[in-house]
Structures are given as C-alpha cells and as structure tokens.
Amino acid sequence: MEPKSRENSGKEDQNRLFAMTNWILLAAGIVNILVGCLFAIKGEATKSTSFTAIALLLFLAATIDRFESLKGLGIEAKTKKLDKKIEQADEVLNQLKNLAEVTGASLVSITSKVGRWGTGISTREAYALAQKVRRILLSIGSENTTIEEALKPWARISCFDLARVITSPICNTCNEELRHLHQANQSKSPINPHDEKFMKYIEESRLISEYQQKLSNLHLIKLEEYPDALFALINEAPIQNREVISAAANKASHFAPMIIELKKNFYLTNPEPWFVELETPRQE
User: Fold this and answer.
1) Which domain holds residue 96?
2) Cβ(202)–Cβ(210) under 8 Å?
3) From CA 212, how far away is CA 97, in angstroms rounded?
4) What would the pLDDT profile of 94-108 be if each residue is shown by its tens digit?
C-alpha cells in the first residue's frame, strides 16, 4: 500500500506542476495579446504582429495536451493518444505476465504429475522445461515467491524420484528378509503362539511391513523436509543387512548438497550426476 500511495502522491504533484505551468503560459499569452493590441492602435503593425504571434504560441503551449496531433517546425506531438497507448501497453504487459506465470506453473505441475518410470518425459526433459519456465518468469520480473510456487511441484517430484532410487535396495532387502522369515516359520508345525521364536518372527514381520508402508509413502514427503526426512527413513530401516543401509546412507549423503541446492535455487550447478542416477533404472 505504501509504494502505491507514494506513486499517487507523485502523480498529484506532477499534475499540479503541469497546471501551474499552463496558467503561467496562458497569463503570458494574454499579456502579449494586450501588448500586441496596443501596438496595433499605435499603428505599429510589425510589433503588433510579433506580439500577437508570440501570444498564439503561448496559448498553444498552454493547451497542447488537448490536441491529439500537432505538427510544426518538423515536430510531431501526440500527447493524449500516446499516453493512452502507453497505458494500454502496460496493461497488456501485465496481462501477459499473469498469463506466463499461470501457464508456466500449470505446465510444470502437469509434467511433474504424469507417470515416469517408462512413461512421460525424461528427467533431462523435465529439468530443461523447468529451467525454461524459470528463465521466462525471471525475465518478465515475476516475484521470487511466484517462481518458487511454480517450480515446487517439479522440485519435489525430482527429490522423490531420487529418494526412491536410493531406497530401492532397502525395499528389495525388506522383501527378501520378509520372505525368508515366512519360509522359516511355515516349516514349523504345530505353531505355538507362545513360542519365543515365533513371537520374534511376528514382531520382525510387523516392523518390516510397517517400514514397507513408509517406503510406499515416499511421495508424501514435502520439499522442505528433504534431505533430513530421507536420512531418517534410511536409518530406521528394520533389516539385518546393515551393508545395504550403509550404502543407501552414503548415496544420500553424496546427493544431499544437490538436494539442498535444488530446493533453494530450483536449479543445479551440475545436474549430470542427478540425471545419471535417476535415468539408470529406466534403462534396466
């Protein structure tokens, strides 16, 4: 509200200055007309004509904003029409800016939500599209918050894809260990529900199943929660194979700086490692 009031105040001051200038020119014109009339009465035609011409020029200068077009001495002035065209151009630019922002945000959102792994656009194509939208919005002077809201869906899905690749070995290990647990306990007959080993099997199966549910909810992690939420998920994996957990944690640590850069700036200084990591599963 404050910048707008300052702008209105500036326009009011400008209008007052223009009005004062017009009145001064008008007064000077009246004086010159009177002087010209006096010289005409005295019979001095040359001086009378000169003062009358000066008066006419002053009257014209005082009322120039009322003329659509004035041609004289090789100068063309189109004040009212020009002002109107400038206002129309500003309005069109604002409308184009709004359209670009809405279109860019919608385009990024739609392409981020289409299927990936074998369908939809590739990681490189999605990145190129997001960067193109980002450059366009920056070039038309969009606010940072507007650009962030437009690119957030793409950045979040990119982090989700990376998290799914990193946690994929843990997911596979969960399936293997759960299968082994089932096989080991199916051979026991009869089943004693109070047996210590059986109760351990039930508990381990429950923990793995609950963890698998968390893995299936990776898409619910918000952009702001990366990479901390990814580290937490990896570290709480209830599997016996600690090497798999260690490998996933190391990979997450390797990509953590890139994740932070992406969610902060919505671009990557070197996106190639990210592309390779995400696109490798597509080729398998």
Assistant:
1) 82-146
2) no
3) 45
4) 766 765 666 666 666
C-alpha dist (Å) from residue 77 to 18, 21, 86, 218: 17, 18, 14, 65
Tokens of 136: 């366009």
- From CA 127, how far away is CA 59, in angstroms rounded? 63
Q: Provide the 3-class DSSP secondary structure of residue 72.
A: strand
Residue 73 in domain: no
Phi/psi at 268 (5° precision): -120, 135
Record the tokens describing residue 79, joined without a space.
């004040």
- Are both 247 and 203 inside the same structural domain? yes
Which pTM value belongs to this model? 0.62
In this structure, what token pair is assigned to residue 9?
């105040």
Token pair listed for 250 = 């190391």
| pLDDT value of residue 170 | 96
Decide if 77 is inside a domain.
no
| The residue to which tokens 């047996």 are assigned | 195
